[in-house]
Design goal:
alpha+beta, 8-stranded mixed sheet, 6-stranded mixed sheet
Length: about 300
């Protein structure tokens, strides 16, 4: 049967079908990410009812870790804290960017937070920027595995709404979780070696994306390769770090690492670091979020 459609229509049909397929794949990922975002929002809402400690106990995984600076049980630390109602210790936060693995087993979110201690003589808001690494549990529920935050001098600014963390291409290989975790740990150690050899600013240069984030206490979030490189060159020239652990998703496209670090400048500083990584189609790992927690 002869095709009577205009040639221009036929020419455009293939690109349109390709774009439609691409959008459909992105929508599927967005649906999975949306489920994680809604879990974080439910977590924040629960805090308004149960308070900080008890809501965290509800939404943290049983094996969730905190840093002191080495990894320790987050839930055990929470249980030593006094439970306070939201009316006394007010905490609000909101996810504004992050991503989830294609295998839907690991994800990360970050956004602004505010705490007000109404029991203080002069209650004043304490601004922060949190970062959480989430794991899907055997029962299908999302639970926090790592939660780290930094205190800020003023509220952190984000683009309106929720914006998925960007990476030009995404890894879709089939090396599996164990092999992917090994390459991620290797990437983390290589970054630490490069920091020791040539300074943090230079070391991070080819490991960042346009939306990569650097979170440091007392400093508004630093975003993008140029700004991060300049900040690290100025403030972390004497940095050294040691990898402790890493985990990649089953899809091998997203993961986290953590370890300890030291700054030998004035003043000296030690503590823990957490990095969130995403992997592109070539198999290279990129740091999309980097947080330090001083001891």
């Amino acid at each position: 049967m002869k095709d009577h459609r205009p040639r221009a229509f036929v020419t455009l049909l293939v690109p349109v079908l390709f774009i439609t397929a691409l959008v459909t794949a992105q929508q599927k990922m967005s649906t999975e990410l949306q489920a994680l975002v809604e879990t974080e929002r439910a977590f924040a809402k629960t805090a308004t009812v149960k308070g900080l400690r008890d809501s965290f106990l509800d939404y943290f995984a049983d094996d969730a870790i905190a840093f002191a600076p080495g990894a320790t049980s987050a839930k055990e630390r929470l249980r030593t804290q006094q439970a306070e109602p939201f009316s006394v210790l007010e905490i609000v936060w909101e996810p504004r960017t992050g991503d989830v693995a294609a295998s839907n087993d690991l994800g990360w979110l970050t956004g602004p937070s505010t705490i007000v201690n109404h029991a203080a003589p002069q209650p004043a808001p304490r601004y922060g920027n949190y970062l959480s690494v989430w794991r899907r549990q055997p029962d299908g529920a999302w639970r926090v595995f790592i939660d780290v935050g930094v205190r800020l001098p003023e509220p952190a600014s984000f683009a309106p709404g929720f914006v998925r963390a960007s990476l030009p291409t995404h890894y879709s290989g089939a090396d599996g979780k164990v092999a992917a975790t090994a390459t991620l740990l290797e990437a983390d150690r290589a970054l630490n070696d490069a920091v020791a050899a040539g300074g943090a600013g230079k070391a991070y240069a080819d490991r960042l994306t346009a939306s990569s984030r650097l979170h440091r206490a007392g400093v508004l979030p630093v975003v993008g390769p140029a700004a991060i490189g300049a900040w690290l060159t100025q403030h972390a020239a004497s940095m050294s770090a040691k990898s402790s652990s890493a985990e990649a998703s089953a899809a091998g496209d997203l993961g986290y690492s953590y370890g300890t670090y030291a700054l030998t400048g004035t003043p000296a500083e030690t503590g823990a670091y957490v990095r969130v990584w995403m992997r592109d189609a070539s198999g290279k790992w990129f740091v999309v979020a980097d947080v330090t927690q001083p001891s």
